[in-house]
Amino acid sequence: MTLSACGGGGEDSGASDTVRVTLVNHVWTENIRAALPEFEQQTGLKVEVTQLGEDQLSDQYNVKLNAGSSDIDVMMYRPLQEGRLFARNNYLADLTEKARGAGDFELADFQEAPLSATTYEEKVVGIPIITEQQVLYYRKDLLEKSGFDAPPATLDELRTQAAKIQADNPGVAGFVARTGKAAAVTQFSSFLYSFGGDFVDASGNSAVNSDAAKQAYAYYGTMLREHGPANISTDMSWSEAMAIFTQGQAAFYPEANSLYKNATDPAKSRVSDTVGFVPMPAGPAGSKPYSIPSWGLAINESSGNQTNAWKFIEWAAGKAQTLEQQKAGVPGARTSVWENPEGIADYPKDMADAIAVSQANGVGHDRPLVERVSQAREIVGQPIVDAITGQDAAASADKAHEAFQKFLDDEAR
């Protein structure tokens, strides 16, 4: 996308009692639509919802935002996938003053890591509504059988336990995780941070060939090569890796907490009654899982109905709605909701405990913070595949560093 002339004539130049909201197909959306009569009765406003699949949503934003269209007021967007592009192109209205001055909305109630991902150049341009943290799924029965009285607290312990369990249970992998070049980047990120690395350094230059990054690539690849499933594929996303775990074919599986019901639902999982959850095991830099907003709400800068658009966000991302969403299984970004017993009542206790640690230690991104995210993931994900297949992870990281730095330089022009 490129920036073109903006439409509209000011934030309330087209003020209307109808707020036009574009949302993605998601459980959050279904829940919020069911609650809309409450909002409309409270405010006297009418909400007009356009609901689309992810690809359709991206296509619509590509056309309408680039054209400066004013017929979207509120937009549901992916802060880590398109947030930087949208913010840099001035598609997102500055919500800082609205959010800070909005009574009991309480911006400080939002967790720091997710809120950082919806902030651009110190301006709040979005409000996080759905979060994810990485945790470690594991098999309690296999740990007990191999004589371990506690799940791994460190990456060294994870390697030791995975090797022992695999040796004790022929046909069962000690470890499984995403392996696809782009798909694995998000889950690999928690290993990268826990080794003390990141995708870029403090100056914004590529850091994927730092000592920490090379150690993380080597660790992740070696775990899958030596302790992963036999004849492991290098194009697995979460669905394939989850299937291996839920069919009882692996002991440990690092994954997003938002997918946990796939492992605990007896209709989907053969190991539902033996699954446990713990925080990301600590590396040399400690336990540093990602803690991110997978979706947020923003206001179209070209909207002429921004005051009423904010009223919708203030309600939809407010404390009451966030609590209701979380009770329905959609993890939110508000500290007060996570501290409320009602907000975690339906989560397994060990999952709630793991999430609490992840929120405290979490990093607010799980991929490079760039405009062309998909291309960047392809570049930084290549050393993952190379390490899995037994190639020199350090050499691959050096090669990826050159390509990623060129990418960053090009994007900065």
TrEMBL record:
InterPro entries: Bact_solute-bd_prot1, SBP. Pfam families: SBP_bac_1. Signal peptide: none annotated. This is Sugar ABC transporter substrate-binding protein. It comes from Micromonospora fluostatini.
